[in-house]
Every structure is written in C-alpha cells, then in structure tokens.
Amino acid sequence: MLIPDHLPPIIGHEGPQELIYKAFESSRFPHAWILRGVKGIGKFNFALHLSYALFKNKITLPFQIDVEDPLFKRMKSGGHGDLIILALTQDEKGKVAREISAQQVRSITSKLTQTAFEGGWRIVIVDGVENLNRHGANALLKTLEEPPHQTLFLLVTSSLGRLLPTIRSRCQILNFAQLLDSEMKSVLLSLNPNLKSQDLEILLPLAQGSPGRIQHLLALGGLDFCQNMVKAFAHLKAGSLKEVLAFAYTHGDDPEIYEIIEDYIRADLVEGLLEKAQNDLSSEATQTHLKLWDEVTQLFQESRKADLDRKATLSTVLSTLSLKTS
C-alpha cells in the first residue's frame, strides 16, 4: 500500500505550507511542483496532505487530514479515481525495482485524457521522481508541457540534480529543510509511542533531521543495529579492517544504510580534524587528516556521480581509512 496505515501530521515545514497557500489564494497556482529535500523528511506526507486539501477545494493552514473523512479513506484505499501515485514497484518477493518505467508513466497519461472522476482536481504524485528511466522522464516531460485541465503534478525527490533540466524548468521548486530535533521527536513519538527517550537520544544524531531514516533504523533493529555499527568502526580504529568490511558488505547495498555509514564516516573525520586543529592548525597531523577528509569526500562524490556499486565504494573508502590511519 502506498499510503501508510498511520499517517502522521505535518510537523515543521511551515515555509512550504505558506508558499503553497499564497500561490493557491493568488489564483496563479503552478500546475507542477518539485518537492525537494533529503529522504525521509516528510515530502510524500506533505504531498498527501496537499492532495487532500485540493480535493476538498480548500487550503487552510496548517495542512491537516481528517483520517475519518470518507474522502481520505478513498485516497488511502486507492478508491479515489483522481489521485494517481507513481513510485518504485516491488515484485512478489519484495524486491524493489531499480527504476520507474516508461510504461508506468504512459499508463497515467492515458488516464489523464479522460474526464476527472469526481469533477475536481486530478493529482499525480511521483514519489522518487529521480528514479524515472530516460523514456519515462521524456513521457512525463511531454505531459508537463501540455498539462490537462485542473491537473496537478507533485514530483517528490531527494536528488534534484538527477532530473532532466527540461523537467525542472517546467516546475515550481519547493524546498524542504531537515527537521529540528524537537520536531523529530514529535514525529517519531507519534509513529512509535513506545520508543524510549534514551534510545531516541542515541538515534537522533544519526538521523540528520530525517524521521524516515530513524524509522528505517528501527526496522533493522534500532539501537542494537547502531551499536553493532559503532563496534565495527571501533575495530577499524584499533587497526582491524575485517569487522567493518563485513558490516559494510552486509548492509551497504541498502541506500539508506549506505548514507548513514557515509555520514558516520564523514562526521568522525570532521570530529578528528577539529580535535587536531585545536592543538595546532598548521601541524603535519592536522594537514594529513585534512587531506584524508578531502580524499574520502571525493571518493563518495565520484561514486555517486558515476552511480558505482555501493559495497565497492565502501570497501574502497574503508581500505583508504585503514591504510591512512594505521
């Protein structure tokens, strides 16, 4: 199911709500928006709240959904004929597709040639629009260039640079900031009422303002998973590469865990750099550490640009760290 059973309220993101509200009230409401921000901060949730408001034909601040409203129940069950959601699909074994296909996009364009089922707005949400393959992106572009009447496109992405410039130029970009710790706690306790506060304090630094990242960590074992990661890196600092490589090979193919490991490595390097710089900014140890930070950052950036294998990237980075810090 694309819409989760428990839909949290929108917490934070006041700026995007106000911008949408003003655009709607001005009667110059763009037909396509790109919802841009890091993964897991609530962009898809925001798109659902906006869709609900437009189906009610009334936007009020803050955005709210009445989960008992028959309208929302139709949206949630897939029974609202004017709400179309595109995302990566899963096969029968739960394996997630690597891209959103052109066939998926073409299936919606044929629906958009028909009259709206409920006589109001028709809304297309593409969750993870950066996953469109080339043919799918071109098919979407054609629809954006000739939008059907009273149809809104909400393109959700955590990687704006991967979208065609021609798609970007036809959309209004809506930026979403990472949540503050206080906002994170509100969202996470709404989703996990039994989450212990001491566990939350340990998990928050790994979240980078993204409740979705914490939810993913909790699904993998939460605190136990994080402790295993910290232990693996402790072995690296003690001179043993084997344990951390095993951890990276087990979990590194998961995009979200890959990002958590990358953030952990870079944060650890920055912490080490600050510690050395406090003693002597120009010392050989500080300059060596700065070069290592540059090298690791470049490895991650080049890997992302070339879409290289995540496990191989982590192996290279970890081997570099092992050699330079031994």
Keywords:
alpha/beta, 326 residues, P-loop_NTPase, elongated, DNA polymerase III subunit delta, 5-stranded parallel β-sheet, DNA_Rep/Repair_Clamp_Loader
Describe the 3D structure.
The chain has about 325 residues and is α/β, with parallel strands linked by helices. Helix content is about 55%, strand content about 10%. It has 14 helices and 5 strands. It has helices spanning about 15-25, 45-55, 70-75, 100-110, 135-145, 165-170, 180-190, 195-205, 210-220, 225-235, 240-250, 255-280, 285-305, 310-325, and strands at about 30-35, 85, 120-125, 150-155, 170-175. Strands 2-3-4-1-5 form a 5-stranded parallel β-sheet, with helices on both faces. The chain is elongated and about 70 Å long. It comes from Candidatus Bealeia paramacronuclearis. This is DNA polymerase III subunit delta.
Task: Tell me the number of strands.
Answer: 5
Helicity level = 55-70%
For the termini, the CA-CA separation is 48 Å
Radius of gyration (CA) equals 22 Å
| Order of strands in the sheet with most strands | 2-3-4-1-5
Largest sheet: 5 strands, parallel
Could you tell me the strand content as a percent range? 5-15%
Shape by Cα distribution: elongated
Decide which structural class fits the backbone. Answer: alpha/beta
Helix tally? 14
Mean pLDDT: 88
- N-to-C order of helices and strands: HEHHEHEHEHEHHHHHHHH
Query: Poorly predicted ranges (pLDDT <50, ≥5 residues)?
Result: none
Protein name: DNA polymerase III subunit delta
Pfam family, one: DNA_pol3_delta2
InterPro entries: DNA_Rep/Repair_Clamp_Loader, P-loop_NTPase
Organism: Candidatus Bealeia paramacronuclearis
